[in-house]
Design a protein that fits this description.
148 residues
Length: 148
């Protein structure tokens, strides 16, 4: 394959892999969808309770989709949605003890899942893929900020 064909392959494969990972992730745990899991991971990356909008931007969801996911997680007790003290329009997200305990119980299974996904990857290959994805992410951010 020439370079253009490789780029086209990578571009298309990202979408296909995303769909396949969603199927695998949803099958991994019947209680939490992979999109809900990513939302929770996003919340956990902030030092202070983030707003729904901040989490949406961090994980790449629309605000409306993030609100829908947050509502479902709130209803099931994994997060708590609270109004911001300074801006009543802003909704902040707090992970509950139920969420923390639930994910603590499944952490070993998550590590095993990750190991299976990356079977055959050595440290060099992992690093190269990481660098490539990081560069793609940077390029996409620039395109989104300039073109949208």
């Amino acid at each position: 394959m020439n370079e253009l064909e490789q780029k086209a392959y990578i571009f298309g494969t990202i979408f296909a892999l995303s769909n396949k990972l969603q199927v695998l992730g949803d099958a991994f745990d019947k209680n939490i969808t992979i999109k809900q899991w990513l939302f929770i991971v996003g919340v956990s990356k902030f030092g202070e309770p983030p707003t729904v909008t901040e989490v949406a931007k961090f994980v790449g969801y629309s605000r409306q989709n993030a609100k829908r996911i947050a509502a479902a997680l709130d209803e099931r007790g994994y997060i708590k949605i609270i109004k911001d003290r300074n801006d009543a329009r802003a909704l902040r997200i707090i992970l509950t003890q139920k969420c923390t305990e639930y994910f603590s119980r499944r952490s070993q299974r998550e590590l095993e899942f990750l190991d299976r996904v990356f079977t055959g990857f050595d440290a060099d290959l992992t690093h190269s893929v990481y660098q490539g994805l990081t560069r793609l992410e940077e390029n996409i951010e620039v395109m989104m900020n300039n073109d949208c």
